Amino acid sequence: MKLYAKAFNFLQDKNITSLLQLQEVVSEMKKRSRNTNGEIKQTELTLYQTAERYLKEHLGKDNVLKLKAWKTEVSDLSEKKRRLYEDLQTLRAEVQEAEAVRSAWNRRYSRSSAKKRRKANGGIWNCDCAGKMLQ
Q: Closest Cα to residue 95, out of 37, 32, 38, 3?
């Protein structure tokens, strides 16, 4: 019952009134999730490349770093990475919720369709010898 209440709230929050809209929302969420994951990887690579470039540029003959500027840049990039991970976690939770709604929707629809087939067949399931349902 909690799953259906959660599904109802999700559908209502996203103004979803059809299966097609639900599929579009799930697809868009997955796309955003992939994009965010790509941004995280790009941020990690940028962080590494920035550190490498900075070290090459600022390590002179005395091998002394100007730590304050370097730490500030590292801190900024690390914060951006942290925010992106938070966004990704939120998106993953939304995708999981949408998938649960779609799954519940599909289960409900398939049960409804099965009842209609049984009713059309006089309440008798027709099976072939492999055990597959005949329509």
A: 32
| Dist CA 45 CA 2 (whole Å) | 42
**Which tokens hold the place of 101?**
């709604």
Contact 4, 101 (CB under 8 A): no
CA 76 to chain centre: 26
Q: Are 32 and 87 in contact (CB under 8 A)?
A: no
Instruction: Residue count of the chain, please give it.
Output: 135
CB burial of residue 120 (10 Å; 0-12, 13-18, 19+): exposed
Name the residue with tokens 């259906």: 4
CB count within 10 Å of CB 10 equals 18
pLDDT 10s digits, 46-97: 888 888 887 777 776 677 666 787 788 889 989 999 999 999 999 999 889 8
Give backbone dihedrals phi and psi of 133, rounded to 5 degrees, phi first: -75, 135
Task: Write down the pTM of the prediction.
Answer: 0.44
